[in-house]
UniProtKB/TrEMBL annotation:
Keywords: Signal
One Pfam family from the record: PBP
Classification via PROSITE patterns: PBP
InterPro entries named among the record's database cross-references: PEBP (IPR008914), PEBP-like_sf (IPR036610), PEBP_euk (IPR035810), Phosphatidylethanolamine-bd_CS (IPR001858)
This protein's name: GL24079
Taxonomy, superkingdom: Eukaryota
Entry's family note: Belongs to the phosphatidylethanolamine-binding protein family.
Stretch forming the signal peptide: 1-19
Length: 203
């Protein structure tokens, strides 16, 4: 008679060891600020020196200046879209340019990001001084097939089309459904930010 409650208690305790994507996205309001529904899986995002961008951990702009390794288990023959977006532009308190687009790669065959089509080249975090922590959200969508994306290509030297982006709207336009995986880190101003802003000088 005593066994069942004990068993249940241990199952519940084990479940709490690691938070789900849903819990983490809800507690940091990635849902609903960026997407309406959390994906089921965490995306694995690794920066230089093995720094892992996950579950809202704080990283510095210096640490995330180079494109990370993004990994997921893909079915061969499938195409994916990867997005990195900052809903806290220019700040989480006053997100009037929500979202700032950091990276968009489409038509990724399987999980080979290098072979995808880069619509918007990767740039790291550039949160302006005094704007606090920004959330940087990675979203992975599974495409129905290889698609024709009618979008301008934006280099890593340009801020063109980066502000006032909406990942959810982009996904809707290309009928990508809900993201299948995601993750995010947070960052605030450091000395690398002025350098990044200088880099984004081209039209
Ligand atoms: C910008 O993109 C170019 C071309 O892909 C690349 O060689 C360069 O390293 C990038 N610069 C930065 C700062 O990421």
């Amino acid at each position: 008679m005593m066994l069942i409650p004990i068993l249940l208690a241990s199952i519940v305790a084990a479940g709490h060891c690691s938070a789900s994507v849903e819990e983490v996205f809800a507690s940091h309001k990635v849902v609903p600020d960026v997407i309406a529904q959390a994906p089921n899986q965490f995306l694995k995002v690794t920066y230089k020196q093995g720094l892992v961008a996950k579950e809202g951990v704080e990283l510095t702009p210096t640490q995330v200046k180079d494109q990370p390794l993004v990994e997921w288990s893909a079915a061969s023959g499938d195409y994916y879209t990867l997005i990195l977006t900052d809903p806290d532009a220019p700040s989480r308190a006053d997100p009037k340019f929500r979202e700032f687009k950091h990276w968009v790669v489409v038509n990724i065959p399987g999980n080979d990001v290098a072979r995808g089509e880069v619509l918007t080249a990767y740039i790291g975090s550039g949160p302006p001084k005094g704007t606090g922590l920004h959330r940087y959200v990675f979203l992975l969508y599974k495409q129905s097939s290889k698609l024709d994306f009618k979008e301008p290509h934006v280099s890593n030297k340009s801020r063109r089309d980066r502000p006032s982006f909406k990942a959810a709207k982009f996904a809707e336009t290309y009928q990508l459904g809900n993201p299948v995986a995601g993750n995010f880190y947070q960052a605030q101003y450091d000395d690398y930010v002025p350098e990044l802003h200088k880099q984004l000088s081209e039209e």
